[in-house]
Amino acid sequence: MIPFDKILEKAESYKVEMTKFLRDMIRIPSESCDEELVIQRIKQEMESVGFDGITIDPMGNIIGRIGNGKHVIAMDAHIDTVGIGEIKNWKVDPYQGAEDEEVILGRGGSDQEGGMASMVYAGKIIKDLKLEGDYTLLVTGTVQEEDCDGLCWQYIIEEDKIKPEFVVITEPTSCNIYRGHRGRMEIKVSVSGISCHGSAPERGDNAIFKMAPILLELQELHKHLLHNDFLGKGSLTVSEIFSSSPSRCAVSDGCFISIDRRLTDGETYLSAIEEIKNLPSVQKVGAVVEMYDYDRPSYTGLVYPTKAYFPTWVLPAEHEVTKSLIRSYEGLFKKAPKVDKWTFSTNAVSIMGRYHIPCIGFGPGHEEEAHAPNEKTFKSELVRACAMYAAIPQNYLLQIENK
To answer: Is the previous residue joined to 219 through a cis bond, with omega within 30 degrees of 0?
Structure first.
């Protein structure tokens, strides 16, 4: 029998320690590609609570280990954050943060260093209550997610040669169970023109004017994208527009836009590209439609290039991992969980989207806090998530043994 009550009691007893650890992480600015100091702080905490092994791979991801059994289970938190945006919108210093009896404020609290705080102390509970079994639990603190979600796990799977049986994504879910989200891709559409003096624009070919009808057709295309009953509708928006010209007194000779394309279940990167290529305005001006590449160095200097494509994933409701988390939740909290999906994207785009390793989500914090000023997370949710993470490994073993 899994001692659910004792797990909850232990998690509650570590609330102060989790709060302190999370506030320490918040105090360390750790935007994508600048995570080294927060990785070192996580290593210190893993050592303090008694992890069996800790490694930092060449990309800079930290991987803590509990146990050495044959069933490899991973729990993942990206530990990079976005920037702070307009500082005037913050009521507190985003890196100093603040707390009261219920909440912790500061950049990264919900998205998503709170998940890391809960995972590390789940490892301590497993040690305290001797919940080890025939499993190896890997607690990963991954880098560059905000820049290029899933790239860290492309590296972990391809280069570190780690392939868990499943991965718990600890992004914020308001302590609900999430089993999927839409994929996404970053698309570039470019048109060319011919510059000339702005006093006689008829001598040239204005690239910005050529882009205008493409923008209108993209706006219309968004309305007609595929809808899925669980994940919802595919979407697109134009997120950036750039142009080139010899001067402000000349006709533009180049224009390109960036498109944030969200892919629902049933859409692919090929279908999304073709939809844009087939627009009459795109064909008329011979616009080039392509995916962006990502090749920014990690904080260690490692470059691991990839296409800016992040596949859709959905874990079936009847999957053993889904049922295992539901059982853990019911055992701990004595009620049925809400099972849902994220609006945004996570590292599961690689883990399950590319490599078909089952993923499921459970995390402290609320999705709407992500990237927002005055970001906050909730101490009670740190406790609940910690208890879940401590219960999941043994409950999963029971689930697969009894199926």
So the answer is: no
Query: Which amino acid belongs to residue 94?
Result: P
Backbone torsions φ then ψ of 271, nearest 5 degrees: -65, -35
- Does this model's pTM top 0.85? yes
Cα distance between residue 115 and residue 70, in whole Å: 25
Number of neighbours of residue 358 by Cβ within 10 angstroms: 20
The Cα–Cα gap between 226 and 247 comes to 42
CA nearest to 214, candidates 159, 243, 257: 257
Q: What does the alpha-carbon distance between residue 154 and residue 143 come to, in Å, rounded to a whole number?
A: 12
E strand or H helix at 73, and its extent? strand 71-78
Backbone angles phi, psi at 176, to 5 degrees: -100, 170
- CATH entry, 183-294, from 3.30.70.3270, 3.40.50.300, 1.10.357.10, 3.30.70.360: 3.30.70.360
pLDDT of 324-365, one tens digit each? 999 999 999 999 999 999 999 999 999 999 999 999 999 999
Into which CATH architecture does domain 4-181+312-402 fall? 3-Layer(aba) Sandwich (3.40)
Cα(257)–Cα(188) distance, integer angstroms = 6
List residues with catalytic annotation.
Answer: 80, 145
Q: What are phi and psi of 5, to 5 degrees?
A: -65, -40
